Amino acid sequence: MKKKLIIANWKMNPVSEKEAVKLARAEDFSNVVIAPPFPFLSVVGQTIEKAALGSQDIFWEKKGAFTGEVSAGQLKSVGVKYIIIGHSERRMLGETDVTINKKAEAALKEDLRAILCVGEPWSVRKRGIAAAKKFVKNQLQKDLISIKKYKLKTKNLIIAYEPVWAIGAGRADKPAEVVEMAKFIKAVLNFKFTIQNSKILYGGSVIAKNVKAFLNRTEIDGALIGGASLRPKEFRTIATVNI
Ligand code: PGA
Question: Ligand 1 pocket: which of 158, 173, 178, 224 to mutate (most atoms <8 Å of CB)?
Answer without folding.
Answer: 224
